[in-house]
Structure formats: C-alpha cells, structure tokens
Amino acid sequence: MTRLERLRLQENAREAGAAAVAADLTAMPLTRLASYVLALPLDDRAARRAELTGALRAAGRRVAGAARGSWGRVAAVLDDSHSSIGSGQKRRRPLAVALAAHYLLEALAKEYAPLWTSGRTDELLVYPFGPTPLGERIIDALETRPDRLVIVSDGFDNAPPGLAADVLRIWRTRLDPGHRLAPGQRVLIAHLNPVYDADDFDVRRLSPGVPTAGIRDAEDLPTLVELARFAERQVGLAGLRAHLDDRTARFLGERA
Amino acid sequence: MSFELEGLETRPAQVWGSVRLVPLVRDEPVPHLRLHRKAYEEPVSVVDVGDGTAYVSFVPHAFVATWNDGDQTPAASYGTRLLERDTAVASPRMPVRFTRRMARKAGKDRLRFLPLHLVVEGYLALHFGGPEILWEEWSRRAVTRGLSPRCEESYLGLRVHGLEDALRIFEIHPGQCGVLVYVADALAGAFVTPHPDDYRALHATLVEDLFGELIYTYGLLGAPAGDLSAGIDGAGITSLHDLRAAAARRREEWAAFHDEVMAGDLFDEDGSRQTVQHLHGFELARFLPSFGLRKENHIGETVTGADGRIAYLKTYRLSDSQVRRGHLLTRLAAHEWRLDATAAALGITEAALALRLERAGFGHLLRQDVLDHYRAQARRGTPA
C-alpha cells in the first residue's frame, strides 16, 4: 500500500483491529500529516497529543534540513478563521497549510512567536473558527520585534476590513526601524496565501508593498520566503540561485 | 418610545456583493432565556443554561415544527411565544400543508420557517389586534384559499441575490448574538438572540426569512456595497502603540456611525408598542412604526428582560404598499373601527373608504351586505 492509502485507512483499521495497516506517522510529509491531524476529532487529538506533536515536529525538522535555526527571530500570523475551511472538495486545506507552516517555522527559527487569528495558543486543537482580525494580529506580531514576519492567510481581512493593509503600509513607510537605512535592512514580511482566487487568476494580496505568493504545500515555504527576500533585495541573484540549486538537489536526492 | 440595544456591541461589517452583514456581540448571554430546544437542528435533549435553574424558552414567529402532542402534522407558531422551559407549544397555531414550493432540499425532520407571504400578513394582523374573530376567520380563509391577489409579494431570502452566499461565507464572531442585514446598504432587518448558541442555530435560517420588494429589487440590481471603512491616516503615528490606538479609534467610529446613521431608523419614536405576554420577568412585545409614507418603516417583536435590555429581536421592513395599508388600518383603529368617523377624518366619503379597504385587500372586514351597498353606490355614481 502507498503511504497515503495507509494514512487513509488508519481509522478504519483501528476500529477493525487490523494492526498491519498502521502508518508510520513520522515518515509522512508535513502538509499531508497536518491534514490528517485536522481530520481527527478534537478529543482524539488531545488523547494522542504526544504522538501527533512528535510526528509534526519531526516532519518540520526534516523539511527544514540544514537550515534549522538559521532564521533568527520569526513571528508568524496564521489564519484559523472560519474561511480557512476552504472548499468542499479539499476541506480545511488552508488551515492545514497554516498548521504545517507553524511547525516548519518553529524548526527554522531560533526564536519563534506564533499568532493565530482566533487568539488560540494550543495549535493541535485548532479548527476553523471566528472572524479574521489580521490587522490586530500583525500589530501583535510586529511588537515582538522579529527579523522575519510570515503571514499565512487567505487575505480576507474583515475585523475590521482594510486594517491589515493600512498597518502594513504605515509600518513599512514610517515605523520599520530599518526603512530609512536601506531596503535590505527592513523586517522581511511575506504573505503566503493558500487560497487561489478564480476570478483574477491570482491570489488576494493584503498590501501592494508586501511580497505575496500562493502556497499549496508548506514544504515550499522556505523557497517562497527566499523569493520574497530576493524581491526585497535582502539576498542577491547568486544567493537565490544557490538556494534553488540546493532545493533541487534535495528533491532529486529524495527521489533517487 | 425608544429602545436601546444595550449590552450589544456593533462589530465591523462583512460584505459580500451587495449584502452587508453587521454582527452584534454580547459580553455575556442574557440569563434565563433560550431558544426552545425544538428549534435546534440536531435533537437537543437538554439546553444548557449554566446553573440549571428554571428558564424561559421562546419560539420565534412562523416557526414550523411537529409539536408532539399526539398530532403529527406540522404546524406553524403564530407569533413569537414565551414558554416555561421547553414545554410544548399550545395555541395559537396554524396547521400547515406543505406544497412542493415550500419543501426545500433539507432533511425531512428539519424545522423551518414558514415561507409564505402569509407570514407577513399574519404579522400585520397580529399587530393590529382588532376584532379577534374577524382575524381568525381571515386567517383560516387565507390558509385554505390564499390571499387576495392584490397583495404584494414578499420574497424568500433565497431569492434575494447574494444573501445565501453572504450568510454562508460570513464568519461568526465568538459571542455573536445578533446581526443586521443590509442589501445595497438599505436595512432589511435586525435579528438578535439571547445566547450565542441560539444565534448559531438560527443564523442560516435567515435565508428562509422573508424580505420585501424593495430589498429584492436592490438585490437584483447587484450594485456592490460600498467600502465604508475609513483608512488610517499615517500622520502622527510614530510607534506601534499609536497604531493600535488609531485602530481602536477606528473601531469605535464605525460602531457609532452604524448605530446612529445606518440603523438609526430601526425604531420609530412615533411608533407604538403593545405588550403581548409576561413571563418570569421577560416581556414579549410587538412594535409598530408610525407608518409615515416615504420613510423607513419596520415592524417587529421584542423580548425584553427585567432590566429593559433587549434579549430577542426580529424585525421586518415594510414595503411601500404595506406601509400604505398599515396607515389605513391605523386610521381605522384610531377611530375604533368605525367607518363614518374614519372617513370624516380622512376627508372622504364612507363609500370611498369602503372601496379603498376593499382595494387594499381588507374587504372581508366589512359585512358582505354593507360592502355590496357601497359598491352599488359607486357604480351608480351617487353620493352616500
């Protein structure tokens, strides 16, 4: 059986008492594992907390690879509002991406401050709930004085609407301590959007001044953030190429 | 007469297309009042009220359910009622025969609201009281034969363009107990419940609610609701603390603007209010506007607690023709339902008034021979 088949049959196998189908959670890819965790009822998640958290952390560390701990102070604004339930076909995908990104950033950062839009602190028990106060969360995140700020959200800021765009604009033009020095000295802010807007063939941006990219798998997060750094002139073309070559080699290495 | 929506905080609106939904949030739910447990989709055996003391339950107007007292046919509650904790609803009830039109693609046992324009007419009837027996007969006739063809239509929320999507996409705030619905920034109605769980149970049923012709037309026109959020000017902001303060100020400005300007006409100071029921300190009342022509007129029901705060609220915005009819009825009621006095006050003849009543769909209020007499007079063209 493939790994995905094993994962899918886990719960049924448990009920039927078949032990041979047990999937090895520590070998699962990060985003798939996050989707699996979110599909479990809350009581199950609480009961299996150690196992699930261990598997998620291991997957995060595996994706981070050699870059573990190299990102300095990182703050993340993660969207677990009601709209992170995504579409009916692939449920809770935006939330799964956010959860996977959380564990990946935890592995990559030296000091990490996660901020969920609902205000929750126990990430294992998240479910899509509540409105999207992105503006306020971004202010909270910037108060922790990070080197990098990653926002994982579908961009539908509604409590109140438009505040996130204003906050980002005022921060980058007035409040960022590095903005008067050189563009490369600013806090790196990257907006990763797990939802694709079919009307515009694009992803919804929070602010025109902040690099925005669509993200489907959390495993792509380091590359997308590196592209954002390149756009912000924090890394040159040579550095970007080196990063991409490294990812390619790892990809081929895994497959080979 | 004025109400205060105390205890309810206005939060930022969520817009989808031309529909704007403004949430109202409570710090604490109103104690001792909950939605009747029959109203919950999933069978709820016990409604949690916290300290387990006696509480009052309410059944909203036009709520269709099978009330299990031996009679398995579904019936609609006629007017909101307050009941002792979850007891079965006795009269007044209106048995309902489901036609294909009314049956939506919902579960068999699912409770729903009565989707006929009967609801609104019945509402007006309830509000006016009047000679009881006449209204009963009228309502019985209305159920079996339908209403006079001259009444205007009300539109199910499903047909208001964009409302269903807006309700589905809306992100419910924790602690949210109410909402105001605007279509093209015209207030369609307000809805408030005592407890956030009750609100969650009833939020989706707004799509089964009725809306007048004005709202339906605005929905059809489809003009997107404007962006009412005032941006934060960067001037004077030198720290994150200032930014936070500016954001808080903006929140307060929105709440004040909404309460005064957008929802300011919800309650009419010149309108009237009639208490219907008292139970354990809760008061159920119906309010009517002054029926001023070319104004916003809302009718509704409220349940207020002992401290005067609104615990439950449901309003409906009258269309222009309904306002005209309501105006006529108000004049009649003010003159104790006497044709001669009312006609004199309005400056027309009795015959003209009788025909006006008939045109408005209230011909059955008059005795048949009286109405025939006036009709004959009009045909002959002779004065009374």
Automatic annotation (TrEMBL), chain B:
InterPro entries: ARPP-2 (IPR054346). This is ARG and Rhodanese-Phosphatase-superfamily-associated domain-containing protein. Residues 4-279 form the ARG and Rhodanese-Phosphatase-superfamily-associated domain.
